[in-house]
Specification:
elongated, transport, ATP hydrolysis activity, OB fold (Dihydrolipoamide Acetyltransferase, E2P), 365 residues, nucleotide-binding, Rossmann fold, alpha+beta
């Protein structure tokens, strides 16, 4: 069983200004065969987390267990994990075959015939068998990335650790490799921890997403749970593109008073926020609806500022008042034409809104 557990893992670094807490008390259980994506803004501790699992970085406190065994003090070569980097890190003077065989030759006493067989199988699996005698300089970026993956596969590890492996590829190749990686991971059924900046990767590839901010784990859940039931304002704003709109409000009874509108809550929703005065109302751009007029409850007048056509849908940047700075976004289908300066009515359906405690950032519903 390659269940990987991080138990209250913390990592601090010392620099001239003092102590930096890169990873702050993170606990997560990654199931055997699970694909976990770690996301979060730059500097939130993603790579440090991965490097601690790989053994490339000491752990300040806490425990990392693989298959129930504590691996905190095991050197990287003794951990049955294989890491794939964004930079590929291939040896330029070696062929594909030599690059893929190198790690096994150096760190195991596996017979050459078995190494050869593993390398050939992996190149076939990755569709690069024909390139096996080429050097990295004679390969495209996508082919080099496959070699880097192959080097991890031949080690037959219990865990794959991937640090932005697709970051250097163009958008089309990235999309292709995303699908290939998913198939590969399903076929090999290897527990995978995958660090990425790219939300689409995280949403489409993972069984679960772990979202970090300032070294603190904000939520670890399936992509849909993170999207529909974010734990807090940070997750709500981080997951989803364009981002969720947020409106700070003050609650009086069943009314949420925002700067530019008043939102009337139904009794059940009002009961859920009855303990909170400062409530942030969140609504995703795709949940805002066009209305015929502002006659119905929770419909408001808005002015279209700019429209960004995206083919199958359009993103409209709206304002409650043409003179106000505050903007919010709505997405409409590609056939709905909105024009800059147009006055429209928009509805915020109650079933689609998210409510957060403005002070703590925690989700209320
Ligand atoms: P990015 O997405 O930009 O790669 P990240 O989420 O992977 O960022 P980390 O590289 O894990 O973030 O860094 C987390 C924090 O730890 C940052 O504040 C970083 O500056 C700090 N840090 C990382 N490595 C060291 C180090 N060797 N010495 C001091 N501080 C470090």
């Amino acid at each position: 069983m390659a269940q990987l557990t991080l138990d209250n893992v913390t990592k601090t670094f010392q620099d001239d200004d003092g102590e930096i807490i890169a990873v702050d008390n993170v606990s997560v259980d990654i199931e055997d065969g699970e694909f976990l994506c770690v996301v979060g803004p730059s500097g939130c501790g993603k790579s440090t987390t991965l490097r601690m699992i790989a053994g490339l970085e000491d752990i300040t406190s806490g425990e990392i267990r693989l298959g129930g065994q504590i691996i905190n003090d095991q050197p990287p070569a003794r951990r049955n994990v294989a890491m794939v980097f964004q930079s590929y890190a291939l040896y330029p003077h070696m062929t594909v075959r030599e690059n893929m065989a190198f790690g096994l030759e150096e760190s195991t006493d596996m017979p050459d015939s078995e190494i050869d067989q593993r390398v050939e199988e992996a190149t076939k699996m990755l569709g690069i068998f024909d390139l096996i005698d080429r050097k990295p300089g004679e390969l495209s970026g996508g082919q080099q990335q496959r070699v880097a993956l192959g080097r991890a596969i031949v080690r037959d590890p219990e865990v794959f650790l991937m640090d932005e492996p697709l970051a250097n590829l163009d958008a089309k190749l990235k999309a292709e490799m995303r699908t290939e990686l998913q198939h590969l991971q399903e076929d090999l059924d290897v527990t995978t921890v995958y660090v990425t900046h790219d939300q689409t990767e995280a949403m489409t590839m993972s069984d679960r997403i772990a979202i970090l901010n300032d070294g603190i784990l904000q939520q670890c859940a399936t992509p849909l749970e993170c999207y529909h039931e974010p734990n807090n304002l940070f997750v709500a704003g981080f997951i989803g593109e364009p981002s969720m709109n947020f409106f700070p409000t003050t609650r009086e009874g069943t009314t949420l008073r925002a700067d530019r509108f008043e939102y009337e809550l139904g009794d059940e929703t009002a009961a859920a926020v009855s303990e909170t005065t400062n409530v942030t109302l969140g609504i995703r751009p795709e949940d805002i609806e066009l209305a015929d007029s502002t006659a119905a409850v929770n419909t408001f007048e808005a002015v279209v500022d700019v429209v960004e056509p995206r083919g199958n849908e359009n993103t409209a940047h709206l304002q409650f008042d043409a003179d106000a700075d505050e903007q919010f976004t709505m997405t409409v289908d590609g056939m709905t034409s909105l024009k800059s300066g147009q006055r429209i009515s928009v509805a915020f359906p109650e079933e689609a809104i998210h409510l957060f405690d403005t002070g703590s950032g925690e989700a209320i519903r």
